[in-house]
Amino acid sequence: MTEAPLTTSPRFRRLAAASAFSSLFSFAITVTIIPAAANEILTQLCHNSKADFGLIYPVWMIGFFTCVLIGGRYADRRGKLPVLAAGCVLMAIGCAMFGRASLYYHALASAFVMGAGGGFSEAIAMALIADIFGGSRRTAMMNVAQFFFAAGAVAGPVTTTSLLAAGYDWRWAFIAFSCARQS
């Protein structure tokens, strides 16, 4: 049995859906941007230590997992849109920090922050869509949400590798993506 959607205005539904879609797009970028610049990160931040590089993603996932767990509780208290916004801000801060990291431990802290933002964003975006749409419209909007995630998963590495091929430092991709999230 499906629950009825929340009674909201069409304008609010559009705003909430756009927020959820852009959040998932941004989340997918943060998932894929580190692997796209793996060789440069390995040599510049990890000093060719594959073991050190191998820890970056698990630390990212610890941040993600932690915020998936606490995100729903915060959303119940504060509302879904503020938590979704907090997720986007954390992803932007994490990307900016990672792009500016000069030490390996800075990169780990940045990865945790990016993952935390992703945890808030991913969990809350889908819950928000489920809350505001009902029936077949809900299914359609969840499919659209996954399209935006997939588009971000392609945009992150394509943009990063394009910047690298053009001779830009890998850090510019992180800085650019952090600025894009804040606009």
Characterization of the model:
The protein is mostly helical and 183 residues long. It has 7 helices and no strands. Helix 5 runs antiparallel to helix 6. The longest helix is centred in the C-terminal third of the chain and has 31 residues. It is elongated, with a radius of gyration of 17 Å.
Set out the fold topology.
Layout (H helix, E strand, L loop, with lengths): L9 H27 L1 H7 L5 H29 L1 H21 L3 H29 L2 H31 L5 H12 L1
Helix pairs in contact: 1-4, 1-5, 1-6, 3-4, 3-5, 4-5, 4-7, 5-6, 6-7
Short structural summary:
By secondary structure, the protein is mainly α. The protein has helices spanning 10-36, 38-44, 50-78, 80-100, 104-132, 135-165, 171-182. The termini are far apart.
Descriptive key words:
single chain, 183 residues, mainly alpha, 7 helices, elongated
Helix/strand order: HHHHHHH
Mean pLDDT: 91
The whole-angstrom Rg is 17 Å
Structural class based on helices, strands and sheet pairing: mainly alpha
Helix content: over 70%
Span from first to last CA?
A: 39 Å
Overall shape: it is: elongated
